[in-house]
Amino acid sequence: MRITRVTHTAAGRSRRAAVLATTGLTASALLLTGCGGSDSSGSKGPDENGNVTLIVADYGQFGYKEAGLFEKYHELHPNITVKEDVTTDEKVYYPKLLQQLNAGSGLADVQGIEVGRIKEIVDTKADAFVDLGDVIDVGDWVSWKEKQATAPGGAVIGAGTDIGPMSLCYNTELFGKAGLPTDREEVAKRISGGWEDYLGLGEEYRKKAPEGTFFMDSASAMFNAVVSSNAQQYYDEGGKPVYKDSTGVKQGWNLAAEAASKKLTQGLAQFSDPWVAALRKGTVATVACPAWMAGQISANAGEANKGKWDITTAPGSTAANWGGSFLAVPKQGKNTDEAAKLVKWLTAPEQQAAVFKAIGVFPSNKRAYELPEVKDAKLPYFNDAPIGRIYADEAVSIPETVLGPKDGVIKDTFSTQINNMEQRGTRPDDAWKAATEAIGKALG
Predict the structure, then answer these.
(1) Which of 38, 105, 113, 419 gets the highest tally of CB atoms within 10 A of its CB?
(2) Shortest CA distance to 181 belongs to which of 264, 286, 260, 256?
(3) How far apart are CA 47 and CA 5, in angstroms?
């Protein structure tokens, strides 16, 4: 499930992102406060002058305002104004979306749908959305992305926005002090055998680790990265839950338990106040890094840590995706034709490249990978890491995964119990029992 890009600070909730830069440009961090939102509760038809206001409801940070795309669309279509209705937390957004779908009212012209929810929507609510199959060119996306939003009858109910190809972010200053290599190619070699090699590197780090520092932020983050690299995760192709027997789940769980028992992890729930503080203080040496995570690190670690971080390829040779979303057009909207045109434009290569440059979420439209804003992208904050190349190479080799209707619930439950192993010292067997029993109840 995509983690909503949200942090909680003493000043209140905020949304943060790092500005990407191509060669010759400067990267900086943006602080975006508040929940955002429009003054409309749903879709409304054209006014007496034929002017249309399109409402885009989403969560976290999709990057359209930051990239100036709504203003640009208005310039191209003067009779159309686009407003964004933002819910900071996706866990609040999704129940509201389901309520509106069930009530048949209140939906926006365009709705965001997170990848951990798309299967449930496809299976149970596909008839409530416009078929975008004749609007977008499905072949423009990485193959597995649009399949996720395709209903059994063939209707494509969502156009892909971002994806989360995996990498590893690491603190070069802490690596150097611990006697580990700092060059991204050398680090890649040391973890080329997979996540087991990653833990081995962690044990080396622990021997000479600077006092008060830890090799990784969260074993649950590593668990999610491991599971995300497997074609089969929580469900089989027939729709049966297999989270108890899944090879990827078992591997991820065992690695997380090992990391917790060997004290390689600081045991921080990602995006919590302690996690933010750890990045700022420089107590974490590595973070499993789907593409959107770089923005979280740079924004929360701050200018004082610029140049102390780098990015290399993920452990092992198996590509992984963690995260991503879709834009969908509810049939009950008053402007479905115009909304579909907006979705097509927002998810086109040029606009996805603009969002990538603005906040760092990686395009799912593969034609964007050849644009200079993506292909030549580097992150000055991360020692000019060539993220355009790193993420594009990963994206095209990610296996097609089997999704299930409650992927998000299952993932969150496992993560909670892994945090208990780290923070409370819960025995792995007890944590596994608690997780699987809670999941069983949630699935009914």
Answers:
(1) 113
(2) 286
(3) 35
